[in-house]
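Work package 3, deliverable 3.1, input record:
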Amino acid sequence: MHISSKIKSVPPSGIRKFFDIVSQMKDVVSLGVGEPDFVTPWRIREACIYSLGKGYTTYTSNYGLLELRRLIAADIEKTYGVEYNPENQLLITVGASEAIMLVMHAILEPGDEVIIPEPCFVAYKPCVIFAGGNPVTVCTDHTSGFLPAPEEIEAAVTPRTRAIFLSYPNNPTGAVMPKETLQAIVDIAVKHNLYIISDDIYDKLIYGETHTCIPSLPGAYQRTVYVNGFSKAYAMTGWRIGFAAANPELLEAMMKVHQYMVMCAPIMAQMAAIEAMKNGEQDMQDMVRQYNHRRGLIVKSLNNMGLECTTPKGAFYAFPSIKSTGLSSEEFAEKLLLEEKVAVVPGNSFGDCGEGYVRCAYATSIQNIQIAMERMSRFVKKISS
Amino acid sequence: MNEILKILETDCRLSPEEIAAMTGRTPKEVKELIADLEEKGIIRRYKAVIDWEKTGDERIFALIDVKVSPERGVGFDAIAEQIYRYPEVHTVYLVSGLHDLRVVVEGKSMKEVAFFVAEKLATVDRVQSTSTHFLLKRYKEDGVFFDIPESDKRLAIVP
């Protein structure tokens, strides 16, 4: 059977194997889940139920409901001072994932390169490849706080480079890029006439720092595609509502792909997102407060057991180094799972330079973190002795 | 300080070391803060939220709306105290609306509660009327769902 070589060139997800083992085990405490443990706040769920009752079951505009776009535009302007016209600069997508796929299709010629710092979310590279491009990765490690130096980004620029892909706060490292570094990267993009794609899905989950919205930086607005969504901030992963904001010409191009691919995002999920935008702020802040507590606890425990872990400044992941154990990421994760029933994700799932790390999501209760840390500490002691 | 209170309100079994890690303080600071909060009476007591029904140990609760005539000088406080000093009385609130006090009474049987209301509560000086509502089912108490524990519906591993 013929399968496209483009598709075949993408290796199967490394996480899959773990998933299969975990699903056959009992009493596993999972730190492997990249989504909030909170159920979507009730007011948001209720708004969806109400809209269904009222009969909102139709298509929406390809761009998404205008009311939702207006609310999002107002929120971006209020939070970051960046103005987008809700009529032609905002597109509601099926999760931020779709938005990323759309950008790639809208900007890449076959063979075009996209620079992506790693470790990073698993879907970025495949999105580039599926759209005919070549991902060019820039490695980072914990000594630099998982942040690439602007010079390293510039060194990766070739005549084929089309875009630089950034995602901070970062999955899996929790790294947040300082404003000056972002500005230096924007300057590189200006110099070489490149797009910047910014996946800001974790922007609200940031602790004691201020998020810098890339399009707010001088030189960035016209060339940046701003991607965000409701999944993480409002615990709405299953609703699949994301959005992209860009200059009207580029957004129109993305919309063209979107309208023939999915038509529009589901109306009931858009209705729920409207409620999240209007009244979800308090619920969101309560969740962020709790993530912050868990973050303190997990980072302390990991360092105490001898796994070096820099303090993540955003998202809900700790990314400790397990190099001191002498095991590879996959060996560590597999043994930990089989011997102590704690699920973590091997760091190499997020790129080659994630080898030597594991991702521990703290989007789980304090009680679960306590149990997991106790088991993990016992495990580390055992393999070190 | 409020941060520590919010944490304790959800789970008061966390150790000072854990609370310290959660809030970026030292365990010593946390211990001192908690001791101070206890001393000032801001933390009144540490307790568990229990679903007694599941133990088979039946306890009857009734919410009783009480209309009283306040007393000059002390308002409702004196009469409220007269009521809340009874060990059968679980909770007393001063409320706005048609009634003045909302009293929660606990007993081993409906009869016991009813007799307490008739003999003790209703006969307290200045109590004008009582209206008793027996509690039939707890759905949610102190922010905890009693009816449906929400289970984790997520997949075990998600990128």
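The two ends of chain B are 36 Å apart (CA to CA).
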